[in-house]
Design a protein that fits this description.
The structure is a single chain. Among the domains are: about 350 residues, no CATH class; about 70 residues, Tetratricopeptide repeat domain (Serine Threonine Protein Phosphatase 5, Tetratricopeptide repeat, Alpha Horseshoe), CATH 1.25.40.10. The N and C termini lie far apart (about 85 Å). The longest helix has 27 residues. The chain has about 700 residues and is mostly helical. It has a two-stranded antiparallel ribbon with strand order 1-2. It is elongated and about 110 Å long.
Length: about 700
């Protein structure tokens, strides 16, 4: 028992970190795929097969993020589109990173430069508080709750693991841990480019806490490894100073701004203080900030930001000899923020997830200041409990915003009312929730701000198509194509509209154009296959369904191919495809119903009965399944069950003449002749071709 108690006490900090992570993110497991989750995960066909490493490597032209994409492929393999598995993975990464922060700070306190300065209890207290702040702070939500930003959290995990392995090897002379340092470092470099600073951080640690010159002189191989690490990210990004200073990208944060390296650099003098403000006062967070570029160093806010950051950097230098660990916290922040907040132009000048790795330095500074300047223990512990409690509460509240797609973009609109993409995204979510008037309002606002953005025309066209306003939809899709001629989505959407209008040749033309642009577009192949099917060109339909399934295994494609096989007389193949559709989607009512029809035709009544019952379980309003099941019950003389099913059909469809006739037959067999005659007349009134001799028979049975 004592051993168990000792194990619990020794692992209490890790258990506390883990429990806090679960408490802060318990409500993140149902957050739907948001924003960039769609292109990077939901619509990313490169991650559909964990065995196809080549496709994952090439995923969205980001080979330097292979490791993260591979984890998405693993999630897809086990969970498909169920968000729980993705969020569970993100939370485990976050908790693991928090535990590594705790371990890393303790190791730093054991280095030669700090030996004896921080007693074990104090080192653990500083490390634990740093880790708890890391876990609980709401600024971390974009790297944890936003699934796709696993790029940032997973890269940070490997970054921390690499440093931990290095420090274990250095402090405890366990040479085998250098393998952890190298392997984790490689994984970090192939997760996100922020790991570029890892070798510089190793050098920084050597300078701050060891004898860097003598170590690298004796262990030249470590220096060689660091130099190789430094070369990896630039080589995969085709980095060159000439390219950087020649780059011009449109701003994703402020319409009309064109980002260049000098402007991006100047703007970061305002962005970084914004990050620091969010660390201290985490209010008015947003998925998308409206942040105009700085155009001159002498703009008031830019100059003020520069002077503030210069002061902080100078303070870090000043503290180097006085408080080495506190100084390191400053340097950690500035070094790790430098990749995304320096001279390299990025489409968005500000994003909260970029604070995830730099936050370790900030929280280390907070922890040291609290432990150093609040000496009264009760006050310090009380302040820590309140602070962690408030931060955790804000994290839970922020996750509530992430849970609702409309709320997320309404929240963004508060901080970015002039952002056309915010209006477009909010309009998109209103459209998908069938709030068409509100969707139209925001699509129109987005167009008013930026009339040259093709995406919003495509979205508004999609909304018009759903409303049945085909001419307006066509006009918007063609407007999108006039702005971006190789934009595949409007071609696909035009195909859908013309198919709905029963203009099959025109629909065929547009689906073919979409496929010509993207030869892996599974849905375009699927829909073109449906058009060929309508035209009774079954062989061409079959070829398109095969192509669609080559790129994406979707239940509805198997369903459509099964229908085609049935038309071609290949019943065995049709059954196999309906079965495959059901395996992919166990609630696919139409697939059960159609397979039941085949079994019924083959007089395999028990199998048909099971399929119709499953179809009804999946869709309790599927009248044709009730009708067919009623026919089988009638065949089996299960009159009560047959009566129930035909009555259910009539309840759902009061003008179903066939159901009235079939119920009339059941009532007649049950000797309810009066009711049978009523149903028979009703069926005839609704157009059923009822023979007079049947009515005469029923009348003859009346007492």
């Amino acid at each position: 028992m004592k051993k168990l108690a000792d194990i619990f006490i020794n692992n209490l900090p890790i258990l506390t970190i883990s429990a806090l992570g679960i408490i802060c993110y318990y409500n993140s497991f149902t957050v739907p795929f948001q924003f960039d989750d769609l292109p990077y995960i939901v619509k990313n066909r490169n991650i559909r097969d964990i065995n196809d490493l080549s496709a994952i490597w090439q995923s969205l032209a980001h080979p330097s993020r292979f490791v993260a994409f591979f984890t998405f492929a693993l999630n897809y393999h086990f969970f498909k589109y169920e968000v729980f598995g993705y969020h569970l993975t993100n939370l485990l990464i976050h908790i693991s990173s928090g535990i590594l922060v705790y371990a890393l700070i303790q190791l730093l306190c054991q280095t030669p430069s700090l030996k004896g300065k921080y007693p074990l209890a104090q080192a653990k207290a500083i490390a634990l508080l740093t880790a708890l702040l890391f876990i609980a702070h709401p600024l971390q939500t974009q790297a944890v709750t936003y699934i796709v930003q696993r790029f940032a959290s997973l890269a940070t995990f490997f970054y921390l693991l690499s440093l931990w392995g290095y420090l274990i090897a250095r402090l405890k002379s366990r040479k085998g841990y250098y393998a952890v340092f190298i392997l984790a470092g490689i994984l970090a470099l192939f997760t996100k480019q922020i790991a570029f600073t890892l070798p510089l951080m190793i050098i920084c640690i050597e300078v701050f806490f060891f004898d860097a010159f003598n170590f690298f002189k004796k262990q030249k191989w470590v220096l060689v490894v660091l130099i190789v690490f430094l070369a990896v990210v630039p080589s995969f990004s085709h980095f060159s100073l000439e390219k950087v200073f020649g780059m011009q990208v449109s701003s994703g944060n402020y319409e009309g701004d064109i980002i260049t390296a000098p402007k991006y650099f100047l703007t970061q003098f305002r962005v970084i203080p914004t990050y620091l403000r969010l660390f201290v006062f985490p209010v008015n967070q947003s998925i998308d900030y409206q942040f105009p570029l700085s155009r001159s160093f002498f703009e008031a806010k830019t100059l003020a930001g520069f002077l503030f950051l210069l002061f902080l950097f100078g303070l870090g230098v000043f503290l180097f000899k006085r408080n080495r660990l506190l100084s390191f916290g400053f340097f950690w922040f500035f070094l790790t923020i430098s990749v995304e907040s320096s001279i390299i132009p990025i489409h968005h000048v500000i994003y909260e997830h970029r604070c995830y790795l730099p936050s370790v330095g900030v929280f280390l500074v907070f922890s040291l200041l609290i432990n150093q300047y609040i000496t009264f223990k009760r006050l310090r512990y009380g302040l820590i409990v309140i602070m962690i409690g408030v931060l955790g509460f804000l994290t839970v509240k922020r996750n509530v915003v992430w849970q609702d797609k409309i709320l997320l973009w309404q929240n963004a609109l508060k901080t970015a009312p002039g952002q056309f993409k915010v209006h477009d995204n909010l309009g998109y979510e209103y459209w998908k929730s069938e709030q068409y008037d509100k969707a139209l309002e925001h699509f129109n606002k987005a167009i008013a701000i930026n009339p040259a953005y093709p995406g919003v025309y495509n979205n508004r066209g999609g909304m018009y198509a759903d409303e049945g306003k085909h001419e307006l939809a066509i006009k918007d899709f063609k407007r999108a194509l006039s702005l971006r001629p190789n934009y595949v989505e409007p071609f696909y959407n035009l195909g859908k509209v013309y198919y709905d209008m029963e203009q099959l040749n025109t629909a065929l033309s547009y689906y073919s154009k979409a496929i010509a642009i993207d030869q892996t577009y599974a849905e375009a192949f699927n829909n073109r296959g449906n058009v060929y099917g309508e035209m009774e060109r079954y062989q061409e339909a079959l070829e398109d369904f095969n192509s669609a399934l080559q790129y994406e295994q979707k239940a509805h494609t198997y369903y459509h191919r099964a229908f085609t096989y049935k038309k071609m007389g290949n019943i065995a193949a049709a059954i196999a495809d309906y079965t495959q559709a059901i395996e992919l989607d166990p609630a696919y009512a139409e697939a059960y119903n159609n397979r039941g029809n085949i079994y019924m035709q083959k007089r395999l009544f028990d199998k048909a009965l099971a399929d119709y019952s499953n179809a009804i379980k999946a869709d309790e309003t599927l009248t044709k399944a009730y009708y067919s099941r009623g026919l089988i019950y009638k065949e089996k003389m299960a009159l009560a069950e047959a009566y129930h099913d035909f009555s259910r059909v009539i309840e759902l469809d009061e003008e179903n003449a066939g159901a009235y006739f079939q119920r009339s037959l059941i009532l007649s067999a049950m000797r309810e002749n009066k009711k049978a005659i009523e149903d028979a007349y009703k069926s005839r009134d609704l157009g059923y071709n009822l023979e007079e001799k049947y009515l005469n028979y029923l009348k003859s049975q009346m007492p």
